[in-house]
Write a structure and sequence with these properties.
Length: 684
């Protein structure tokens, strides 16, 4: 059936989905507090058999993003329907994966706003706004996003964009404590989700391009006191380094240019706690400037940029490191998602750590020792290196790709073959599901570069990126076998910057796309089984949870992030009206048919489709250059009636005043506003 026809047929169902909330008893603060207090180390490690909750950003301490729930499975996923939609009242990128604790969902929105929501109904329980000064957005390289919270012993922890770490009471949203994690007024930011490690709250930072020195910090979960801080790049040469590891790193840097701007190496996303080995693993970002000849004249590996680092969880001392891109010259962060698993490699059981960083190679490391077990190209095109030498662990680089003699077209680019969007691992299939992409870049040193703290310092002529042909920018869902180090299957997409993935015991993989869809595939073969059109690009990772015997699948939908900012409106987002939302689905057989539509809204829908559908689209979704009314700004909404009555001469918008009156026009406007709030269409 035609997509637009389906839009019209299903709008009534979607607009009334939130009515389910009226049938449930609201959760009280006492029950919320009791549930949150019970989240301890055993619960986070998954040792108590807790299947129904999603307790960390990536599910559990292994960060596998695998749901053991199978009520929703490959045989019945086509029966999924929207049960509630929660508006975050935002128009910037939504990157958070919600956390769910015994029926309460905690999630975040742009500007680090935190919400507690009834996970059964989507009804807001409380919200907390850290009141980040909007001027701080200038210091954020990649949108004013936030990836989520951590929960532990009755508190919710969030990192604010202005580099504060804040602990909230889980029942009320009131501040328990907050600390400033940045140093000396430097332009640090936080966009990543905190992690918990045996009573410590772990948080990294962003801001590498703006003039900061990277580090990972551990704070006491009860009172916010700093326990330890581990730096990722050396400090001043003339002074003793903070650790032996940094003293070793200093030999890999030349000159002192990096000291003038911090060096970079920020720990802005990937953090994993291994309770069994009492270790913490995290990934580091690029150097500043991106061009090594500027920050370290004469070369050098520049430790510990673009590296995976293992620390002692109690002290923060380094156990081992592995640098994925020595002497990084391309912004090849290794801050992408890290996954822990036990795999049989060459006949031997190994405790491994897996990563698919920006540089296009998939790495499997022994997480006890840091030994490189395998590294294979997963990107379609890698031009900067021929391979990773398994004996030395180093890339075999391609001459000229460091753009020493002028411009070079390099693949992947700074956008990465895989960026921050989380991948997932299914122990049932043994496959890793990667939001992969092909986005090459043009690199050339900026001859006029001068260090400016607080501004974007790359040392490159970034204007060259705009010259690339958009037709070579694309993405795909990649199912990767980490043991065989080969592709199992893929699903191609027309655009890059697609969402994170979720694997489940129901033989399913869920992923949102940049062109505004949410899709379920069979995990073993990649067959598309179900999809929706969300009305905005989805970049966040989905999750799943169970309440009262019902399995739900939930995803944050909201286009944004660095690719959206740099690459323009590639999705169906459009406009500046708030369209960010959390969409939650369940099987119709478990939640029953949707409640009946309000008669007044039904009449509003009828009037819209009688007078407006031909130009502005079924369900108020415009598929052409004609304005999408859901994204009309407030100035247009104020004169909506006048426009409909009198038209807009010269634009093709006719006046309808001789056919309909003010009352009917008001109903049409109400329908458009309702569609702006809901903004999702089911496609089966």
């Amino acid at each position: 059936m035609n997509r637009l026809i389906l839009a019209a047929l299903t709008t009534a169902t979607l607009l009334s989905a939130s009515a389910l909330a009226d049938e449930r008893t609201p959760l009280d603060a006492g029950a919320i507090a009791k549930a949150a207090v019970a989240i301890d180390d055993a619960r986070l490690a998954g040792r108590d058999g807790d299947r129904g909750n999603w307790l960390t950003y990536n599910g559990q301490w292994t960060e596998q993003r695998f749901s053991p729930l199978d009520q929703v499975n490959a045989n019945n996923v086509s029966d999924l329907r929207l049960v509630w939609s929660f508006s975050t009242e935002s128009s910037r990128g939504l990157e958070a994966t919600p956390v769910v604790v015994d029926g309460v969902m905690y999630t975040t929105a742009p500007w680090s706003v935190v919400f507690a929501v009834d996970a059964r109904t989507g009804k807001e329980i409380w919200r907390y706004d850290p009141k980040v000064d909007k001027q701080w957005g200038q210091k954020a390289c990649c949108d004013v996003v936030n990836r989520g919270v951590a929960v532990y012993k009755g508190k919710i922890y969030v990192g604010a964009l202005d580099a504060r770490l804040i602990a909230l009471d889980a029942a009320t949203g009131k501040v328990v404590w907050e600390v400033k994690t940045s140093e000396h007024g430097k332009p640090y930011t936080i966009t990543g989700a905190p992690r918990i490690a045996a009573g410590k709250v772990l948080i990294g930072n962003g801001g590498g391009e703006y003039g900061v020195r990277g580090y990972l910090s551990a704070y006491d979960s009860e009172n916010g006191k700093l326990i330890w801080r581990t730096y990722t790049v050396p400090g001043e040469r003339a002074k003793p380094q903070e650790t032996k590891a940094l003293a070793h790193a200093l030999t890999s840097w030349n000159g002192d240019q990096w000291l003038k701007i911090g060096g970079g190496g920020t720990a802005w996303d990937a953090i994993v706690y291994d309770a069994e080995l009492e270790a913490i693993y995290f990934g580091t970002g690029n150097g500043v400037a991106w061009n090594r000849d500027i920050r370290s004249p004469g070369g050098g590996d520049n430790l510990y940029l673009s590296s995976i680092i293992a620390l002692d969880a109690a002290t923060g001392e380094q156990k081992w490191y592995y640098q994925t891109t020595p002497g990084d010259n391309w912004d090849f962060d290794s801050a992408s998602h890290l996954i822990l698993a036990d795999l049989k490699i060459r006949g031997k059981e190994r405790k491994v750590l897996m990563q698919a960083p920006k540089n296009g190679f998939f790495y499997v490391l022994d997480r006890k020792t840091g030994e490189l077990l395998s590294a294979t190209q997963f990107a379609d095109t890698v031009t900067w290196a021929k391979k990773i030498d398994l004996k030395t662990g180093r890339p075999v680089e391609v001459e000229g790709q460091r753009y020493e003699k002028g411009m070079a077209i390099v693949a992947p680019s700074a956008f990465g073959a895989h960026n921050w969007q989380p991948m997932s691992f299914s122990p049932k299939t043994g496959l890793v599901y990667i939001p992969a992409q092909e986005v090459p870049g043009a690199y050339e040193r900026d001859p006029n570069f001068k260090i400016e703290e607080g501004f974007f310092n790359t040392g490159l002529r970034l204007e060259l990126f705009k010259g690339l042909n958009r037709t070579i920018v694309r993405g795909h869902l990649l199912a990767w076998d980490p043991v065989k180090q080969k592709e199992a299957w893929r699903v191609p997409y027309q655009l890059a910057w697609n969402g994170g993935t979720l694997a489940s015991a129901g033989n399913l993989v869920f992923q949102g796309t940049s062109d505004g869809r949410f899709v379920a595939y069979s995990a073993d073969g990649g067959k598309k089984l179900w999809e929706i059109v969300s009305g905005t690009g989805i970049i966040a990772g989905p999750m799943s949870y169970e309440v009262d015997g019902v399995q739900y699948v939930s995803v944050s939908a909201g286009w944004g992030g660095t690719f959206a900012l740099a690459g323009g409106n590639a999705s169906t987002a459009g406009g500046t009206e708030p369209n960010g939302k959390v969409l939650t689905f369940a099987l119709a057989s478990k939640v029953g048919p949707p409640p009946p539509q309000d008669p007044e809204l039904a009449e509003s829908e009828r009037l819209y489709h009688h007078y407006c559908v031909v130009c502005h689209g079924a369900g108020a979704i415009s598929g052409t250059s004609v304005p999408d009314l859901r994204h009309s700004n407030e100035d247009v909404q104020k004169i909506f009636g006048q426009i409909v009555k009198d038209g807009r001469p010269g634009t093709g918008m006719a006046g309808f005043g001789k056919w309909i009156g003010d009352a009917e026009i008001g109903k049409i406007q109400n329908y458009v506003r309702a569609r702006t709030r809901e903004d999702v269409v089911l496609i089966r």
